[in-house]
Amino acid sequence: MPTEFDLRRKNAQFANAVRSGKKAVKPSHQERMTKRSPISLWALGVVLFVVIGGVLFELARLVFL
C-alpha cells in the first residue's frame, strides 16, 4: 500500500497535469450536468410515441375518411 507521502505526490502530479491542460480521467459533476439532456430518455420516448402516433392517425383519417 502506498504511503501518505506517495499519495500526496501522485495527487499533486495529477492536479498539475489537469491544470496544464490534460483532460481529467473522470469529468467533474458540473461537466456531466451540462452534457445531460433536460428531458429523460423515457420521457422523450413517450413524447415521440404520442407525436408519431398522432401523425399516423391523422394520415389514416385523411386517407380513409
UniProtKB/TrEMBL annotation:
One GO cellular component, as annotated: endoplasmic reticulum membrane
Domain of life: Eukaryota
Pfam families associated with the record: RAMP4
Record flagged with keyword Membrane: yes
Primary location group: membrane
Function comment: Interacts with target proteins during translocation into the lumen of the endoplasmic reticulum. Protects unfolded target proteins against degradation and facilitate correct glycosylation.
Family (UniProt): Belongs to the RAMP4 family.
Protein name (Swiss-Prot/TrEMBL): Stress-associated endoplasmic reticulum protein
